[in-house]
Amino acid sequence: MNGRIVSLFGVLCAVSLAASVTPASAQGLIWSLPADGTWVRYEGKYTYIERRENSPVKDIAPWTKHITVKSVGSVMREFKGEMVACRWIEIIIATGRDSEAGVDTGPLGLWKYRVLVPEPSVAGTLTAADGIPVSMLPIVEGYRKLGKRPVETIKSTVLQVYPVISLLEHYRQWDGDAEAAADPGIKLGAVEATKRAAKLVVESRRFRSANTADLWLSKDVPFGLAKWKATVVREEKGALRPRSEFQAISELIEEMEARASGTDAAADPDFAAAAN
Prior knowledge:
Layout (H helix, E strand, L loop, with lengths): L2 H16 L20 E12 L7 E22 L2 E18 L2 E3 L5 E9 L22 E6 L5 E2 L40 E10 L3 E11 L7 E12 L10 E16 L14
Antiparallel strand pairs: 1-2, 1-11, 2-3, 3-4, 3-5, 5-6, 6-7, 8-9, 9-10, 10-11
């Protein structure tokens, strides 16, 4: 098996295990719903840095990462006891090394999700109108395909974006005031975006994870996000040791920007059996 993909798989497994100490959270990637049939592709880099006490820092060359988000259908479904408009959203994540054919994902670097999202649940804010934090993105139905494995049903009732789809969390509050709207200089073209900063720290007796992010929110970009940079620093200590002894063990950095969009989105053929 390709060594570079094994390394990527190991990183994803490690981050997934670390995520077990964090609450389910999801709406950080989808801030609005465009017209059905719309898609946007983000491109960027995903970097892993390993830090161990008394060991040299291990900085693995960044992987190339593409995330495509698309709206591929609208239906009415029951949600919380009433019929509401729902949208089929597909998210395709390709992570690997650059090649002449594009991103070489190998057998494990291509992950696909198809979820049915109640349209009223996409609030586009950190808190709902009643002041309650929007802490998750609920789904009525969902499927995923991880690498070459067969399509499987998502049993959860929420879409878990962090950490496999993206390092973005659903942050509970903004860090500071918004910057004035400006063009973030993305390859998609000229857009107007507002930069916001956020941080989420989760701690257990042995581990601490600090997720910091800069997000450029834009009404000019499908699904509401123009670009982002998210950094996750993981720390570890003995279960009975004081908090002052936390030591950094790894750092993940994800930098992405919107580079292409369109209005001709089609359902992925891998989900043909689930399309309705």
